[in-house]
Amino acid sequence: RIRAERAVELGLANHVVADPVAEATACARKILELPQQAVESTKRVLNIHLERAVLASLDYALAAEYQSFTTEDFRSIIARLTAGRN
Asked: How far is 14 from 5, CA to CA, in rounded Å?
């Protein structure tokens, strides 16, 4: 588990609220008041952007992950995790 404040520090969240359900409900109400076509178009554009961003960085991410498998840190962690399983 990650505390809410730590999630903000890590960039996983942009702010912390006392009542997350009330905040989410208020946000949903604001979105419901907007023109439906505009919300749908914006969502579509954001999804296209995210998909392109993932595709653009996927090769690099896979190469970096593969490279990490060759490090001593990785081998050490795997050895600890599998110790005693034989």
From this structure: 10
